[in-house]
Amino acid sequence: MSAFDHLPAGPNAAENITSDTRHGITRHDEFGWMRANNWQEVFKDPSVLDPKIKTHLDAENTYANAFLEPLKELRATLVAEMRGRIKEDDESVPAPDGPFAYGSSYATGGQQPRFYRVPKNDVGSPRDILLDGDKEAAGKSYFSIGTADHSPDH
Asked: Which end of the chain is less congested by CB atoms within 10 angstroms, N or C?
């Protein structure tokens, strides 16, 4: 008997074949109905997701949470162990450009980079934070900085 024997079967997605032809090749997808045509809009406002898709995704999430519940303590232990093996306050070596050196760093417990500059000849001086990813991410359900670079005129 396993820790998961108490769970009912997971939700089954209805099959509703959609077809798509591109470059003379037709592809049939039994679950294509779950691909929202307005997916970019859904990223900005999840409430516009087709209710049939949302209902199924909610059922999948509920099942996954119930399935993983017995592993809650183990997951927390593993996350703590992984965090203990990484340098959370990591940073780059400041790269000189003109009168400044530019770099990025992470705060302990943070998830987004901070981009900073320091005078090129005094890299030990206080950092001028140009972009703080953790502050920008505050209050948002999702945030990611793809890349950042300083302006040529500093």
From this structure: N
